[in-house]
Structures are given as C-alpha cells and as structure tokens.
C-alpha cells in the first residue's frame, strides 16, 4: 500500500532508508524491548549510512540536507516498524552548536558528530520541580576562573547513558537578579565521559516503553568555560531556536508510526476471516482505520507546510506546534484502530503492535505537551491573553 504523496522530493532517500530498516525486523526490536537494551547496531548502521548527519553542513562532514529530508528519514524509520528515538537527537541537538557555537566549537565537535565518533544525543533541560516551566529550573552553573561549577538535577534526559556529549541548560544568574525570567540561562556542552563519576551521576528510569530515559545529577561538576555555547545568559533563546525543527522532526516520526499502524491494520483486516468473510468488510472495523488514514493525511499536509516555511526562512511556530499536536493525535488514532482491529492478538508481542502502541503514546506528552501547544495557539496565533 503506497501512502506517499506524489509530489515527494525525497523518494530516493526514503527508499534507501527502507532498505536499511529491513535489516532490523520486529525480532530485533522485541529482544531489545525485553531487556531494555539500546539499539547499538541500528544506530551504527544509520551513522555509517550518513543519515544522522543529514543536517550538518558539508564543510563539517555532513550532507547539508534540508529539514524536509531529515523528516523523510525519520518518518521512514518509523513507517518501517523501527524507532528513531534512540538517536534522533543526534540530528537536531547539534543545531544549537551550529547556530550559536564558536568557530572553534564547530570545528572541534561537528565533524566528529557527523561521523558518529561523538554522540550528542543528551539534552539536559527538564527538571523534576519545573517540568515544562523551563525558566524555573534550578540547576546552577557558577563561574570560577576558567571553569563553571554545576550543581542540580535533570530528569527525562534520554540517551544519557549512550551519549558522549550533553547540551545542558543551566542558570548562571539567579532568577531574582534578572529583568526577565528568560534571562540568565546559559547553554553548555558537557563531556559526559570525562564528567561521569566526577560530579556527574546518571540513573536510568524504567518506563512503559524502551526509551532509555534517565535522571542526571550534578554535584560540583566542572565544565570548562570554553564549553559555554554562545553568550552567557542567552541560553533560553538558543534552545528556543531549535524547537521548531525538533517538533517537526518528531511530527514526522508520528506520521511514520501512523502509516505503520494503518498498513498493519489494513493487512490484518483482509486476512482475518470471521463469520465467513474478512473482518475488514465490517464497517465497525473499516471506518476507524479509514478515519485514522484521513487524520494522518491532514496532519501530514500541515507538517509539509511547516517544513516548507522553515526551509524558506519564514516564521513557522504555528505549523510546528500545531503539527506536533495533530500528528501525535493522528498517530494515536491509528494505534487505537490497529490494536482494535487485531483484538487479542494486538496484545501479543510477536505482532509488534503493542510495542509500537506504547511507543506512540509518548508523543502526546513529549517533547511538548498538548496543553502547552494549545496555550501557544491561544496566545500567539489567536491573540488571546496568556494563560500561564
């Protein structure tokens, strides 16, 4: 079943990604899921093929592809039944260094990130007490000569155990000493391998899906001053710069998941025969799948509009935020239709539906919750009073 748009400009990329993904069937992911393992072989294959360096400019060893190409890569990974969450941050987290890092930082880190010699996959922002209220974070970096001393805690720092570098957001000026609460936050590149056991502690969090999430603790952890990205105190703005790209790439993964669920549901509805005919003939089975397909197509169209605006250098916050919300909803609608179509077999591990079902649920919460998206729309799109 072909669910690609006829105007797709990245058909060759999609085909090559699909070929790679055939080397990692459901059995591979089920085994990892059972032991909460990290897909090292899968990540290595993507790295060697150059897909994780898609957005890094050619001068630093990447492909210099547009955001829509990166979206196509991630979509196809998920549409193939695989999961890019183990490594997708390698694509977009480097954007802060690319846009705001010094010339020396770009030369030092980007080529090694492009080859996979360095993994920049950990993003230290969220904290237990502040959640999505980023300006209320408490992790503090105090300047002492040619280094910063960091104390605090982060949570839901995915891939911390499997990353060489972390992009860390911390306060460098107390909140009560700045004019705006968004001031006084700074971004740092943390060498996690060097800091581990020397002020850095990583504690895995077991969750309903195999997402490699962790708590991270900083106890007088030293970070060289040269690892400050951009200007001190402007880190919040740097983080915001990359959020539209992140949300659209996550949206692409949701579209891929939706396509996988729909294809699985359609195939099963044709093969499963009850009361003398395929269950797909029953409107009670057929209509939820059809509705999920329509929702996926609508979400996909908005995502493509957002990608086009991003690549044209136009404001795309509306499309990035709304796209993330409705792409996640379309994915979940397809997941519900798929598991209902399979009935009891949908809960059996060997069908892969229950694994993908658990994975798909995450994106209605992360990387931004639906309520915050609605608040954004209300305030920044509709011009209503700020709700928080």
Explain what this protein looks like in three dimensions.
This protein has 388 residues and is α+β, with helices and mostly antiparallel strands. It has 13 helices and 10 strands. The protein has helices spanning 11-21, 26-35, 40-48, 67-79, 89-92, 95-100, 103-115, 192-195, 235-271, 283-311, 317-342, 353-361, 370-381; strands at 120-124, 140-144, 147-155, 165-171, 185-191, 200-204, 214-224, 228-229, 273-274, 277-278. The strands form 3 sheets. Strands 1-4-5-8 form a 4-stranded mixed beta sheet. Helix 1 (11-21) packs parallel to helix 4 (67-79). The termini are far apart. The model has no long low-confidence stretch (mean pLDDT 96).
Structural class: alpha+beta
Question: CA-to-CA gap between the ends?
Answer: 45 Å
Residue runs with pLDDT of under 50 for 5 or more positions: none
Secondary-structure element pattern, one letter each: HHHHHHHEEEEEHEEEHEEHHHH
Helix content: 40-55%
Q: Total number of β-strand segments?
A: 10
Shape: globular
Mean pLDDT: 96
Amount of beta strand: 5-15%
**Number of separate helices:** 13
Radius of gyration: 21 Å
Strand order of the largest sheet: 1-4-5-8
Largest sheet properties: 4 strands, mixed
């Amino acid at each position: 079943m072909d669910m690609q748009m006829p105007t797709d400009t990245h058909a060759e990329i999609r085909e090559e990604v699909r070929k790679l993904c055939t080397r990692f069937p459901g059995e591979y992911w089920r085994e990892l899921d059972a032991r909460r393992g990290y897909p090292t072989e899968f990540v290595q294959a993507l790295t060697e093929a150059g897909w994780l360096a898609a957005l890094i400019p050619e001068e630093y060893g990447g492909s210099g592809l547009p955001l829509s190409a990166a979206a196509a890569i991630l979509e196809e990974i998920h549409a193939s039944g695989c999961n890019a969450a183990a490594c997708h941050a390698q694509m977009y987290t480097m954007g802060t260094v690319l846009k705001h890092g010094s010339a020396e930082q770009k030369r030092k880190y980007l080529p090694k990130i492009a080859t996979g010699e360095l993994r920049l996959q950990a993003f230290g922002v969220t904290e237990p007490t502040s959640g999505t209220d980023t300006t209320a974070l408490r992790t503090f970096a105090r300047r002492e000569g040619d280094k910063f001393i960091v104390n605090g805690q982060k949570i839901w720092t995915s891939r911390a155990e499997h990353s060489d570098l972390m992009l860390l957001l911390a306060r460098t000026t107390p909140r009560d000493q700045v004019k705006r609460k968004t001031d006084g936050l700074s971004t740092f590149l943390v060498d996690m391998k060097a800091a581990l056991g020397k002020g850095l502690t990583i504690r895995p969090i077991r969750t309903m899906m195999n997402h490699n999430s962790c708590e991270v603790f900083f106890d007088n952890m030293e970070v060289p001053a040269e690892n400050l990205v951009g200007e001190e105190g402007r880190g919040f703005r740097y983080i915001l710069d990359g959020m539209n790209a992140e949300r659209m790439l996550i949206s692409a993964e949701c579209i891929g998941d939706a396509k996988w669920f729909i294809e699985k549901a359609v195939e099963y509805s044709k093969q499963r025969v009850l009361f003398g005919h395929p269950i797909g003939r029953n409107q009670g089975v057929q209509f939820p799948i059809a509705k999920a397909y329509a929702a996926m197509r609508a979400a996909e169209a908005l995502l493509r509009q957002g990608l086009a605006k991003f690549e044209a250098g136009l404001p795309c916050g509306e499309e990035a935020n709304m796209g993330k919300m409705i792409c996640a909803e379309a994915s979940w609608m397809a997941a519900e239709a798929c598991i209902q179509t399979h009935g009891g077999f949908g809960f059996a591990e060997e069908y892969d539906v229950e694994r993908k079902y658990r994975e798909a649920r995450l994106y209605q919460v992360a990387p931004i919750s639906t309520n915050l998206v609605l608040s954004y729309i209300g305030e920044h799109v509709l011009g209503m009073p700020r709700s928080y």
